[in-house]
What does this fold into?
Amino acid sequence: MKRSVFVLLPVLVLTPAAIAQRLPGGAVPDHYSLTFTIQFATNSFEGDETIDLRITKPASSVTLNALEIDFHQVTITSGGRTQTAKISLDNKREMATFTVDQALPEGPAGIHITYTGHLNDKLRGLYLSSYNNRKYAVSQMQATDARVAFPCFDEPAYKATYDITAIVDRGDIAISNNEVISDKPGPGEMHTIRFATSPKMSSYLVALTVGDWKCLHDSVGGIKLGICMVPGKEDLGHFAMEASKAILHYYDAYYGIKYPLSKLDQIAVPDKSGAMENWGAIIYGEDSLLIDDKTASLVAKKDVANNIAHEVAHQWFGDLVTMEWWDDLWLNEGFATWMSPHPLEEWQPDWLVKQDVVYGNQRALARDAVQNTRPIHQQVETRNEIGSVFDNIAYGKTGAVLTMLETYLGREAFRAGVNAYLKEHAYGSATATDFWKALARTSHKPVDQIMPTFVLQPGEPFLRATTQCHEGSSQIRVTQKRYFDTPELFEKSDSQKWQVPICIKTLGKANGGASCHLLTEREQSLNLQECPRYLLLDHGGAGYYRFSYEGARVHSLEPEAVQVLSAEDRIALLGNEWALMLAGVSNIGDYLALGAAFKATPGYLLLNDFFKHLEVVSRNFVTPSDRDAFQSWINQTFGPQLQELGYQGRSTDTAMRKAQRAVLFWGLGVLGREPDVIAEASNLVQSYMKDPDSVDGTLLRAAITIAARNGDDQLYSQYKAQLQKKLTPEAFDLFLYALSDFRSAKLAQQTMDWALTPEVRSQDIYLLDAVAQNADNGEMAWNFIQQHFEEINRKTGGGVGGSGVFLYAEYYFCSAKQRTEVEQFFQQHPDLVTDRERKVTIERIETCSALSERQQPMLTNWLQSKGKHGSGVATNTLAPGGINSFPFAAPW
Ligand SMILES: [Zn+2]
It folds into this structure.
């Protein structure tokens, strides 16, 4: 599964007090025959289901999962006898028990069930979607919602084969996991579509979509590919098709097992957030799959390609081999996250996706630095708990840890281990231990010692190095402890230990040599056959750790040192510098100077990351009296770079050059409030409205935001009018969410009122968060969100977004007062989020509030000194060697 781009946090499926507990066992399903008769007139479907199962313990009842199912009749056949079962429902546990008079002997049995299900508006089970006044039926079973579509043994380890039949209106088609094997008229005005038997799979992977879908068709390596969508959007599917061909081709070569089905359909549906990896029939929200290749921004192209690469990776990781229980969800999501850049790197080398990987690692490290983070492996039982582990730990942290492991083992050794694991558990389930045992066996390296330290304990290592040079060789002493993003916790931290693979880069005689080592002790020495002038503890930015150096510290860099650093090194170093500032090791001025020193880094992600952090600085550290100095520092430092690129795109520009321009444009327009950039943004938006093809899509993203932040009532009306036009999903999202950027309180109020009307789809409820993130209207938005809690929950059906809206508080609150308000709100609504999520949110607000108090005066001082001494960009100064025998730079 993949959450939509806008969603950084998990979106819980919210049913307060609902408990999903484990089935009692005693019966094992082998095969399901499912017939769904779709009745759009009544928003319902008739279900006819037969489950072939094995009774493993003689009993007079069978218990499976069912929720919101209206049962008609249940019969159980076993030992040559068919009995009608008494049905008892346990809605709290989401289970149904079928009891018969004569006990069922051990051995094969069959359950036949007829029932009515509901095409709900909660985006779960088999749900209702709509577009242009017509209805669609769409499935979303993960994590625990197959039971809403059909009674089943709804736990991932209960794998079975599925024969699916859909009876649908004459003009409609149906898409499911496998190919259509027959399509016959009747009954009545309907037609009956039968699909080939699925591979053995978990219930959460069952797929069905019904409607007047239009599909593009192609093939790769003998696999039939379909990209499907609502009528009229066919042109937006070509990019996804090209990406899918490249990605599937790559995976077929990478994995030791070929893609196991004969077809792969990918369907874009109007009502959905993110994407779901159903085997052979992946379902996406429209903005996650459909794109106009000609006008789309680089960011949107990368997102769509990455979504496809993620979901298709799941066809092996997750679908072919599945975690035994949700506590090892990371085996699915971490793998898909780690894997997805690989095919993109080969398909689009100009995209520099290695930088995205390091950028993703930095984000994961940042999220994992709180006291209330969780281990990758997390015990979960209830529906809410299961929903809560689809978070940045399962995706981002695991992806980052696997990247570190792959770098340490080498690409081929890692691949051999992955394939051994897949072969061993194909069509079955596996645990974390199975995975690292397979890798240890094939690589002959202690993966089974390394991985538990990252998977079973929370948090991230902090490495501190000291060095000594003696007769041409050097010794690096490294100590480790846990990193926290507050000075108080960081100082006290001491008791954890990891087995950390680290790769070191040196600049000395060898000029940029690299070597990898394994740290197994809390204090350990590494020996180098040289005395380098510089040392980098995280070569390539692939390490899942923070680091610092004892002894001399410099934050100004020699040009030769900067040059020997790759873009990936620099992104990691800059992220690390922010972390050092949070922990009280350095201060905001050091961070700003380092970012400025790296401003000419190839690609756009370093500046993008830097500006995002500067937005936090701008919002929380910059006092009104410092505002002018802060803005002029930004404009002096980055203005010339934008001047050089030019405000307007040229036809000869590479995608990367366009992206650099867009990021600088955003930084100068939003953070620097540079009048020329603001005027140009406004011109660009007006040009787009006259002729959408006239503006570079990458630059447009920035321009829409900048114009809105400086826009009036008239521009607001223009944006809203755009939403009525036939837009690409990207343009729609841009104009929709830009409504939150207008500064006027009156317009913010209008946006929020409108967000609760049926005109705004429930997946776009995040518009409320977006308003709350607007510094001018945050307080008002928070009050609105609290006051309209019931309406928000009703609109989202307790489904998508309902709880996410409240969890986002951590992103925009930074004061003691707000902390109290959020805590009170959580107390009033105890079932809204899990206990851990509540604690993380509160912790983050507290951390931000303390950080702001600490860094504000330092920023003032730094800005004043910049006013006297120039832009703060690195000079050729090197700190004295201190206790070390050679100059030592940190962060590099
Ligand atoms: Zn996923």
The longest helix spans residues 835-869.
